[in-house]
Fold:
Amino acid sequence: KNEVEQSPQNLTAQEGEFITINCSYSVGISALHWLQQHPGGGIVSLFMLSSGKKKHGRLIATINIQEKHSSLHITASHPRDSAVYICAVKVLGNQFYFGTGTSLTVIP
Amino acid sequence: ETGVTQSPTHLIKTRGQQVTLRCSSQSGHNTVSWYQQALGQGPQFIFQYYREEENGRGNFPPRFSGLQFPNYSSELNVNALELDDSALYLCASSLAARPYNEQFFGPGTRLTVL
Structure:
């Protein structure tokens, strides 16, 4: 069983739709990261969370520590949002666990 | 301010060989983490270096080793390469080994073991 589970694995949306990607984890964490990975491998860090909610442009990330759950929301989705979104958690000992990613395709 | 760079971009080795991958951290960052990402999978944490000392390690065998230099650049060494070592190797730098510090990722080195 993976320490970090993401859903859905694949997601196709029409441009303009509101998108939610979910992440559940089973270990105690010190921080949670949402990452964006484009084809070819480049990874960009979108958010780091230890509590509450963060917003950056059309992206919103929330975390519920008690429920061990985080969500990434994209409002007014655009084809350039097409990428793989990865949830990663940092645990004691500076070890990181990653989800397998959610592949998002936004169709014009 | 330069970002995280990695070299080489691509590499092909044969089973049993040894490989060294390099990472230059973002200016001012003193922490480097290395990850292995197999095709279609999420990254797996290999280890982290903070001020030239290993500061955390994932479930990788000892043939995966690393170094961090005084300028905070880093190397990942893999001995006795196996076919399953074929993957994208990513490094990420951050300012300090604190939980909330943002990591900046390099473009990765794609290693193919034949």
